[in-house]
Structures are given as structure tokens and as C-alpha cells.
Amino acid sequence: MLRSMFFSTVFVAVLASGLVARPSAAAVPMEPLEDINGTLVMVGGGTTPADVRDDFVKRAGGANAKLVVIPTATAAADKADAEGSLEPWKKYKLASLTLLHTRDRRKADDPAFVKPLTEATAVWFGGGDQSNITAAYLGTAVEAELKKLLARNGVIGGTSAGAAIMTELMITGGAKEAKTGRGMGFLTHCVVDQHFLKRDRTERLIGVLKNNLGLFGIGIDEGTAAIIKGRTLTVKGTSYVVTILPEGGGRKLTQTKLKSGEKADMIALSRAAIERANGVWPPLQPPVPNVPKGTLVIGGGGGMPKEVWKRFIEAAGGPKANIVFVPTAGDDPVPKEPGEMKSIRKEGPASIKILHTRKRAEANSDAFLADLKKATGVWFTGGRQWKLVDAYQGTRAEKEMHAVLERGGVIGGSSAGASIQNDFMLRGDPFSNVKPMFEGYERGLSFIQGVAIDQHFFKRKRLPDMTNVMAAHPQLLGIGLDEQTAIVVKGEIMEVIGNSKIAIYNRQLSVVAGQPDYEVLTPGMRYDMKARKLIKAN
Description:
538 residues, eight-stranded mixed β-sheet, nine-stranded mixed β-sheet
């Protein structure tokens, strides 16, 4: 879904999870980017590689493609030989190939003029001066039809100026210091610059980001394309695409050079830019880990033993329990009755209902929240925790999940369903579960704060990963949960249950060279998270 950015006038209150509001030259986006409709193909200028054109045509429908070429960025578009801009496309023998150009905004609103766009599967913008495009088409029927094209999963591409116009905030010119204006807004939350490495425009783009907190940058070099579909940016061409996150939130400016075939996650970049604009994360002095009301059951994956299900249902009210089962971390389609749901049902709750969506708008709807409002327990399945963040973080559904705890209920989950429960979330990389920390997806649903939880811990030999997390964030309490093992958390006390063990990483204690940098707890042991010490049995 292509979303607009929502702005406040002076200060920002960002994401219900508690970011600190800060002033900026342009107010910070309040919501991260979501999947875009259609496909955007942005070429940084110079010669457009043949394989980029081939890919563009394939995405447009191949021989069935209906392509509209818009050369308005260049003064040559007014000349009799403007048809020359069609030449590179004629070899593809498309279903239709149309030139569309005017400088008259009244004509840009004429239904007869825009008719080719209503039938198009793709549009290509040529290079030149991007301000010529916005002067002619911004706010007209042409703009409206272009956005309808994306909504029906069409393709919009362009080179140089034709790439620059695609974002909501557009660089209009300037050498070292950019001038900006409003672009066509096919893509929000970022700023694109072209001829990037060839013309050394790094300083220019960084300057724009400094003045527009919460945005990230995409610098596209000549002969190279950034192709965006859904949430994924893929590079194709002879040079590089550079993604930039500005300095902020205690982090240094980050530039990542991507070569042909490499990818970036647009939503993660958006989330990272917003986090940087709104303070240090995780906080240098986090709250003491505490669940003041209700109970958490946090499992390490690999199949939970009966004891875990029993404790979960007991905390939810036993035979009177009303359970909401959330499989959103997994893949679609969701099974009619996932395995973990069967295990919960065997413990005899009064009701158990599936709650699942990928759409944040649905997670804010009254109909979606009805079962949550009555729930005494919520269970999150395994899968990928970033999917839970995308669907629920900052929504009314997240608020109702916290309300389950407030009225004395229980939140439980295993694997991804464990990682999502704390505030500093590990393994959020949408492309892989290998990296323990991934900027942009380091904030969970915060049912417990001040901890970093990992799962499949001993089974998958993740001990060095937690050592690295503790080196980066020694203020946190690290908890490594092995498979078939869980912790039950009430107040500031955790209890280990299940079949294996957990590891506690506490950097308030000195690490002795040659000795394990963690403490092992086995089933039956209890640990005080405030005092950070084992509670000895009587």
C-alpha cells in the first residue's frame, strides 16, 4: 500500500511506542513507509543499460505492454523531432507506444490528453530538468492517472530528472547545497539524487537529509537503476546505488553502497531514519525489567513442552480463558488450525480465535479489535518477528495487547513470538535471521523493557551473537532461551520452565577472561531482574 507521510507543524509525537519528540526543519514522518503498489524503475542518468530497459518492458507486460513516454523534462520535447524519445522502445514491438507532452496545465487536465495513461501498463520519464515535469503535471489529471497506474500494479520508470521526480520531496537543483521542491510523490519517506557518484553529489544529498529529519537518501549513479517493488530495492546496472541514513539518535551517518544484484529493504530504512530523528535507541538507561500486571510466557522455539501450555492457560484463567492466537509472524496462507493452536486447545480454554492481518488499517479497525478486547491471553507463533512489527506496532491492536496485561491476563509466544515481546528486538532483518541486530527493526512490542531476548539459543549456537549485543548495549539484560524452554515473568521475577536451559548476560558484572560471559539457569530456577541475581531456593 502506498502511504502518504503525515506531518505535524512543529513537533512530532512518533509511534505509540514512545519515541522522544524533537524539532526539525521539516517535521518527522509519523508513520514508516509501507509496501508500495506497482513498480518504480529509477535510473541515475547517463546511458540506460539494455538489461534495465529489457527488465522494464518485461515488468510492463512484454509484447502486451502499453507504454507512454513523457519527455517533458527536456526543452527538446517542444521540437518537431520529439518523437525521437520513442526510438529506444520501438525495437520491443509493444502493444502500444505513445508520446505524451505538454507545458499547458489546462491540457494536462483534458480527458482526451490523459486517455493514453488510463490504458497504460507503463510510463517512462526522460531526463532534463525535473522542475519542468512538476510545473506541467503536478496537481493535474496526469498526476492522478499516474498514481492510478501504480495502484493497478503498473510500472513507472525514468532516468535522471525522470528519477528525481518520483519522491515527495524532490531535489530541484544546486551543486553542493541542494534546492528542493515538491515531487510527484510516487515514493515517500526518502529523497532520490541522480548522477550520484559521477558528479559527487554525496554532500548535496546529506545536506537535504539534515534539513528533513526522518527521511533517508537514495543516491543513484549513472548507468544504474534502483528498482523498487513492494518493500524491496534491487540494483541493476554498471555502477552503484548508495543508501544514506543521516547522523542522529547516537548513530553516525551510514552510507551503504549496493552493486548490481544487491538489495535493500525500504521499510527498514524508513524505520531507521525515523528512529534516528527521535533519540537514542535503545535508551542508555532503560527501565528495570518489570511486568507489573499480568504474566509473560516467553519460549525459545523448537516446540514447547506441555508444561509451557499449561502455565500459559493457567495465567489466562484456566477453563475460563479466552485466547487470541496471532500467527502473523508466519507465512500466508495461515493454516486453519496451526500446530501450536492445537496444543493450546488441548489445555481446555473457553475459546481460542485466530487474529491475523498484514494491513495496519485493519489492525486499527473496531471489527479486528473485538476479540482482543475480551481476551485473557494472547499467543504469538514463530516465524519472522519483523512481520509482527509491520502489522501491529503503533496500532490500536498493539494498545489492546498491552491492555490484556493491564487487566491481569497473559502474553505468550515462542521463537519470533518471544523476540517480539521485549523492547529491544533481535533478528529483525527482513532478508535473513543471521544478524542479531538490524537497524530499523530493533524495537519490539515492549511488553517488557530493558532486555534483549534471543531464542533457539544453545541449539543454534547463538552465544557469540549475544556477546556482541552486550558489547554494543551493556545497559540491557541479555536472555538467551534454548529450544523447548521458556521463562514465565511476573513483576521483576522470571522463572525457567521446560526441558533445557537459558543464559543470562549481565554486563553489570565483570567478564573474566577465559570464562563464560553468561550465567546458566535451568528449569525451576528463578531470577530477580531488578537485582540481577539468582533467587536461591529455600
